[in-house]
């Protein structure tokens, strides 16, 4: 269809368009417009809860259990629709005080225990110095890979935790093998080339 601007219309039709009154038409057709609006909002007009008033793209199944999943502007409607949720029987809702976490509740006990431990260690400081064992510079590396024992006041690696027999057998046939005995000869390392092994 080819629509022409009003200025291009003949004078007879132009005069009809010029006297067109929108307000008069709206009042005459008010009942039709009202039924049209109600048919558009048919989904939200019969809504009983705040969840049903939401647009479809914002609806969440878990929102009925977790109010935080609703948009903030619908929180009040949700509480008004579910008055017994927070224990209040009236339409007004009260927000529960958030319970402190278990860690926060036990904080005072933890601090008291730390203080008591600090006092007892300072009283018997000389006794603890005798029992304290020293670490090697490579302690963390060894602790991940070996069973550690305390010997001569030092934490020393005793036996490896991984089972490397198959890897040692392959290495002895292809390249060389390193034998390392932590105790009693901690600093002795023996390298056996393939010809010797």
TrEMBL record:
Domain Pop1 N-terminal span(s) in chain numbering: 29-122, 125-180
Cited InterPro entries: Pop1 (IPR039182), Pop1_N (IPR009723)
Alphabetized Pfam families for the sequence: POP1_N
GO biological process terms on file: tRNA 5'-leader removal
Entry superkingdom: Eukaryota
GO annotations of cellular component type: nucleolar ribonuclease P complex; ribonuclease MRP complex
Protein name: Ribonuclease P/MRP protein subunit POP1
Protein's organism: Schistosoma curassoni
